């Protein structure tokens, strides 16, 4: 039977730990799905989490944030906590689409390579099979105008599903402990850096902080870094005594994106719509909940317009969405790392209450369409894809964090290409709604993009350790292994070369299953090829 060990209980003079075959850092979706697949394959796993059961959402000691050239407050949607970001999400998920995962968009494989893992991840989450989800009815066929638009071939229907309560990877991991004697978890233990023991990348140790004045060195055969798209580059850039690991290409931390979102405009309908449709409010379908969105048709070759989508809703649902997005900021006024004792525990519980309340209200008001039979006007909210940009990045500031490591600066902005693409989306939707007699669309986009009201960096941290076949153009290979340190894998949305629009949870789970299978095969076959850049 495995166990959870709190780092605070480890004696200060404890020796370095010779740990498991595989050491996984992070207990969110990437860490959880990697761990459970490796355990199923018979491997010894130690999972290490910086947090404990209560939330720690204060990122300000570790990050600065610049948007459009201006430094703004750090209000990221993350939590150092057992279960990671699965504690924050509302459970809505969808796979990346076939037009997202293609060589035309920089991926080292096509969608077919991950399709079976998507189905398996959906099954673990208790969702409908992806193939069945694609066949679900939209509920707008009874309206001739909407039905004509749907069948025109000019749009793409986006389908999102979820179960309640949302799947939590912390619970998933804890429930698995009794079944696996080769599985242990270490909580309250923050990874500071990796250190090379030789020049080949064959020997690596990891240094952890187990409190302000205590560090712990842990070694193993394989490390899997599952710490998200902004913490992952910060750790790797701080590694090897500050020289960095994984940055032989110079691309570590670059191509950062985050699925910007915000109100695109308002649609005044020619005829009222039935709000009970999953296109306009949350609907129940078999064992899952369903919500739809609408985007422009995508090329089968993976080229063409960015894969944005819009969601239609009424005013009550907008209130719920806003509450969810603001919950972290409202309850995180007191930095939990700077509090102590009873005050810190109280603050963490307040954070937990705020997060849970926001999520519950968001899901509750998603059913607002059921309160009113029909609507004449709809709010149009955009969920945006982005072009990969080197200028959007995570880099070190040189200023020390609470543990003496360099903090990081997160820089994000819309590129000129992004701006043009968003305008094209608004113009195309306006033309389509008028052409098919649906109604008049009024854009909320002002002439000056600096005034656009979009949430920029929130909770989807994508692209800072991109995968690829060419070590000069990527950070990891197609399975997430660092090109220049073959003992270290990266799991999570940091490895995505392009972004799409879907919440990355399901994709992270699927890719983590795939990576875990590769790690298992390599460990069993002794296949440890090395790329040596020294």
Q: Helix count, per DSSP?
A: 10
Stretches with pLDDT under 50, minimum 5 residues: 332-338, 530-534
Query: What's the total number of strands?
Result: 22
> In what range is the share of β-strand residues?
15-25%
Q: How confident is the prediction overall: mean pLDDT?
A: 86
Shape: globular
How would a crystallographer describe the biggest sheet? 6 strands, parallel
Structure description:
There is one protein chain. Mean pLDDT is 86; it is low at 332-338 and 530-534. This protein is an alpha/beta fold. The two termini are 42 Å apart. The protein is 26% helix and 23% strand. The strands form 5 sheets. It has a 6-stranded parallel beta sheet, covered by helices on one side. Strand 18 (393-400) and strand 19 (406-412) form a beta hairpin. The longest helix is centred in the middle third of the chain and has 25 residues, at 341-365. The chain has helices spanning 29-40, 112-124, 130-133, 144-150, 169-176, 228-238, 315-331, 341-365, 416-435, 505-525, and strands at residues 3-6, 17-18, 22-25, 45-48, 63-67, 70-72, 155-162, 183-187, 190-196, 204-209, 215-219, 222-225, 261-274, 283-285, 288-296, 309-313, 374-383, 393-400, 406-412, 439-443, 454-455, 488-490.
Q: Main traits of this protein?
A:
about 525 residues; alpha/beta; 6-stranded parallel β-sheet; 5-stranded antiparallel β-sheet; globular; disordered C terminus
SSE diagram, text form:
Blueprint: E1 3-6, E2 17-18, E3 22-25, H1 29-40, E4 45-48, E5 63-67, E6 70-72, H2 112-124, H3 130-133, H4 144-150, E7 155-162, H5 169-176, E8 183-187, E9 190-196, E10 204-209, E11 215-219, E12 222-225, H6 228-238, E13 261-274, E14 283-285, E15 288-296, E16 309-313, H7 315-331, H8 341-365, E17 374-383, E18 393-400, E19 406-412, H9 416-435, E20 439-443, E21 454-455, E22 488-490, H10 505-525
Parallel strand pairs: 1-8, 2-11, 3-4, 3-12, 4-8, 5-19, 12-22
Antiparallel strand pairs: 5-6, 7-15, 9-10, 10-11, 13-17, 13-20, 13-21, 14-15, 16-17, 18-19
Helix pairs in contact: 1-5, 1-10, 2-10, 7-8
